[in-house]
Amino acid sequence: MPTTPPEPVRSGLSLSGRHLSYLDFGGPGPLLLALHGHFGEARTFAPLARHLAPDWRVVALDQRGHGYSDQPPDFSRDGYVEDAAAVLRHLGGGPAVVLGHSLGGVNAYQLAFRHPRLVRALIVEDIGAEVDGDLSFCLAWPHRAPTRAALLEALGGSASYLTDAVREYGDGWGLAFRPDGMAASQRALNGDHWPAWLGSSCPALLVRGSRSGVLHGDHARAMAAGRPGTRLVELPTGHTVHETEPERFAAAVRTFLDGLPAAPDNRLPPTGPAG
Residue 6 in 3-state DSSP? Predict the structure, then answer.
């Protein structure tokens, strides 16, 4: 049963003069780093953190250009992966379980491929080893609106999944990301990532929404069959499994976590105080 952990603590670090913000849900358990998808931010994982507490300490990152993290010079694959690696080193918690949704899922398995010492296990939510998306539709969203209601009206049908990203600024209401950055990030994400998916050996859970238009069933089954130690779970949702079926998603995650071998005792020292 989920418990009620303390309120998460917002903290961060400075990386090459740029601030990366994260929420630390605390607790005595081993570390799970959570990486959201495009348009998202750290607090999307608050329900999962409640379900896993106190057995797991969930730390959720506002990835570059999202939430309370600064705008980056680029949205490159290297940039996202090295941000996540820097957070894990900063926390001194490696090796950690790394969970990622969509954009965050690719970041997670590329992190495991490039920095295997930092990643104990993977949980990848509804994204494939080949990505071909287009977020150019978001370029029509307004930069600012005079009121919150006006912003939500201008967002139209997209408003329902963007409410966490709505912010009040000095010059009006806007979103916690730049739409042009999201479109650029998606272009950089597109491509064939099979070598990275197949190139790590830690245990992995692949979670697919059975109604997803992003990760198709045949592709998910090929991913699971091609990578030893990978388990595929399908739940009756679309792309945002963790949001649509939070309890069933959390149960699948917990079952996977409960089956992991004990973490090796080779944690890294923290790199310094929060920036």
Answer: coil
